[in-house]
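Thread: Modeling a multi-component assembly for a lab meeting

Hi all, long-time lurker, first post. My supervisor asked me to bring a structural picture of a complex we are working on to next week's group meeting, and I have zero experience with this. I have the sequence lines for every component (714 residues in total). Could someone generate the structure of the whole assembly? Inputs are pasted exactly as I received them:
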Amino acid sequence: MIFSSEELKRFAKDVFIKIGCPEKEALQAAEVLVSADLRGVDSHGVARLSGYIRLHEKGRLNANPEIKTVHETPSTAVVDGDLGLGLVVGPTAMNLAIEKAKNVGSGWVSVKNSNHYGIAGYHAMMALESDCIGISLTNASPLVSPTFSKERLLGTNPISIAIPTKNQPPFVLDMATTTAANGKLEVLQRKGMNAPEGWLQDQEGHITTDAKGLVKGGSMRPLGGDREHGSHKGYALGAVVDILSAVLSGANYGPWVPPFVAFIDPAPNPVGEGLGHFFGAMRIDAFRDGEEFKEHMDNWIERFRASETVNKEDKVLIPGDPERQTTEERLKNGIDLLQPVVDDLQELGNKLGVPLT
Amino acid sequence: MIFSSEELKRFAKDVFIKIGCPEKEALQAAEVLVSADLRGVDSHGVARLSGYIRLHEKGRLNANPEIKTVHETPSTAVVDGDLGLGLVVGPTAMNLAIEKAKNVGSGWVSVKNSNHYGIAGYHAMMALESDCIGISLTNASPLVSPTFSKERLLGTNPISIAIPTKNQPPFVLDMATTTAANGKLEVLQRKGMNAPEGWLQDQEGHITTDAKGLVKGGSMRPLGGDREHGSHKGYALGAVVDILSAVLSGANYGPWVPPFVAFIDPAPNPVGEGLGHFFGAMRIDAFRDGEEFKEHMDNWIERFRASETVNKEDKVLIPGDPERQTTEERLKNGIDLLQPVVDDLQELGNKLGVPLT
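Re: Modeling a multi-component assembly
Sure thing. I ran the full set together rather than chain by chain. Output:
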């Protein structure tokens, strides 16, 4: 069923208002959520809306948080999200990072006591309009096993980095530190297809191609897939994301990160508060003339786009290209939600008295 | 043949002095170089010494540079390395980043007009003694093809991140953004063994297991190996390293990065000056109480070390463990250099009148 992004935003906003979010924050949260649907990261868009509401019902999410800076220097800060929506806490913290970059060249904000913040890319891209390089990291529900381990100790812990350009579209890296994002697995599960080797391991820690391996108690493999192919690098990157997001801020880390799904209780004896994010902003003209930087970014991108490819039908892509193409297409033709997602949203809307049209 | 690290440092220092480096800088350069031998990254240690000297002979390396800060804000700077040894320019720039971190919480320094800086980890680890998180990136000779490309457009562009701890040894990530580091390939070449799939492609861009593929005009694959296993992520990470190191500073980027080997001329029409690095330092107590941070780092590490493993004989490693074990072993037993490396160093020593004993 096809919806316009505006309608989905309106619906999500009204749902957030119903659980007690102030209007401005509800709008912000809806904006972040639907940006995932627009960018083709369907797993992080409105499909997750009812998940946030269930967390609220469980008392694990504060709809009207008092977001506070609890420690700071001219270029750094720790923000306490007061258990608010990451969709609201994230942009607040990112704005603080940008503000600091305006004052002293760069700003770095680690966040505790937050919840899932949607797609990493949204927050990183906020920096672009201030001619800053934006960085956004978050930890997440433990689903990933370090190399050699059979335990779930890390989340898919994404890294997003957005870099301003002149005439070319911005460079936007937005990646999970696993071989494949969870959303890609869900697609294979729905189609009844196998996953490539290196994506997943079963409960005993052995490689599996069963796309339902995660549901059956297995775990995801870090980028690289196995030691021979560098999975220790994916593991180490995921670890850095965890440490900057949570050990630096005072949030929960590793296996203590509270799960997104409300039916799994958080680990007992938490080591911090909520989950954690990490944001950075660096003003490009804190390094060199901004126009010069942007011209060289365009040149970088044009050279890579022009690269000779192995197969003539392929093109070398620039990070952000696929998501931007999906956004253009979906702004024009609307967002085609899967029927189970539509059913879920309609049920949620009926319960809260918010029509989805 | 076995040498003590002190003897190798003395030899490298004297060689650098012979080409005109001031004594203090020669010592610094030797220290960085031999730290690679100690950490087991043999490809970046004294085996490269004669390569630096050949660059000097070609006029592509300035033994007595005037390293200058050419642009700065309280938390950022661009440093011009005056075509000096990266082994000297790197630590100078990293010290500036640490200084800025002391003043305003964090410091970020992009470097142009430099040369190869040895192992990334050395520079990142400099931050540890100031209770800072250290970050070190560099671009490098183009050897890597982006996903779908058959051209060499990126270097192995490493990422190193060092994080302070309390009683545990520090967390030190030091990784190439390729599936495997070049040094591992060289080991396979010497042993006449094949490389695993996903490490290399041939000149036409097709996967090859020939460990000599690179010498035959092929290229290295980004971490992930192929699109299905996430090579677009390794490519994007390598791209970010290139951009922060060179587009931000005004160095050469992508295929324009000057090759380390003196027998290949730099690309005509350079887009910048020399090659580029990027350094960062963040004071841990710019985020939270330093002791508290370190205690939680220890807890993080202890939890991961205690993880249940797939095979009983394996242990979950913490980034930096293998290099630290090698360092301990080599400090005790000396550094066993391969005969071709010894021959090369002796030839160099004879030419410059510096004995290797």
